Structures
1.
Amino acid sequence: MIVKDLEERGGMRRLGIIVNPIAGMGGKVGLKGTDGEEALRKALALGATPIAPSRARRYLRRLKGYELKVELYAAAGLMGEEEALEEGLKPVKVGEAKEKTGPEDTVEAAKAMAELGVELIAFVGGDGTARDVCRAINGRVPCIGIPSGVKVYSSAFGLSPENSAELTRLFFEGVAELKDCEVMDIDEEAFRRGELRVKLYGYLKCPYLPGYLQSAKGFEMEVDDSENKKAIARYVKEKLIEPGTIYILGPGTTVKAVAEELGVEKTPLGVDVYLDGKLIAKDVGEKDLLRILSKLNLPVKVVVSPLGRQGFILGRGNQQISPAVLRRAGREGLIVLATRAKLMETPALRVDTGDPELDKEFRGYLRVIIDYNEEALLKVV
């Protein structure tokens, strides 16, 4: 197909959207990802439901509010076309719809959009989807990620679907510059075993303005902050642990230090439940948590630590702690821990629970425990 130039198209710009319909499905059921057929089968067996379509609709809904002269190209069927139609848009369909999709479908859709002269590709997924788009595009077309994965460590993503839509507008208005953004991913099989192996796979050119794109996940390998973690853990044990209270322990090494101080063996990258001196559940999903909370009907506290540099305390790697769980704990039931080293590279906190109204409730200043009997006030933005 010969692509018309901008004047021949009446000034219309071209935007593509690709949705990975299974991205993020493993989060609430505690699978830490859905890469691979076996992981997807297990997620479905555990009752996982798609979340990427709703993320895509949030992006498109915000985009509709802008008066942009943009022609939308959508990957066929579940990969973007259906979401666009549901939002009242009339996209140009790219490819043929399939009941079952995989990484190669993302690659083919991205290649086709590049050939059709699409000027910006918005993709909905996580780091695995970013890798597929990177492999297909190889720097030829600017891209913007809409976060939907369990793990979203790459810096090619907006902070939320609405944030990605705003960057899309700024790109087409010529305000946002282009920046090379890291595409990072982890070994999911190792991740499920509690091992974190990360690799830089490449770069995507993304629209950029400060405060819109997330940072690549920080890994504090050069800094030995083990003593700081132990001090935080001692403080939590001595001052914050109360009998008859359920403690939901999120992922991360700082929270793991708390578990060690309490004398229990925590799942390194999973979510566990502590009550009165012992773990009563390990590596749980959302349904497990809700069942425990309903059965015991006790006060609830949620213990989390922010992702380094990104600042997310909810909605990245701990989707098991869902909006329904968080409403049981409330804002006052959230305990946030961060070492001084992490705090130096994390100027603000963020939440992305999947429920925009609940996200608003968590905004404002939160106390963050940074050492024994020491706290800092950080703003949730």
Note: The longest helix spans residues 226-240.
2.
Amino acid sequence: MRIKAVKCLICGDIIYSRVRWDFRYCGCKSVGIDGGFDYCKISAKDPSKVKSVDIEVNATKEELYRDWHSGENKYGLIKKIK
């Protein structure tokens, strides 16, 4: 499934929110994202250092919710692009 994500142009991490209450920071804590599929709220120290991207995640909405709710974090961790 394609989902909205953001890339931190400082540390190179791509982050996304799995559900409404899943707030995530990139590794350097310059960029955060929240809202899951309900809305997309992006927080950034410097908005010019953020790029919106779409990524492919091999999971359904239900799997992403269960992953967040159970704390398993199979899908919710930061994806670093070198």
Note: The chain has one domain: 2-76.
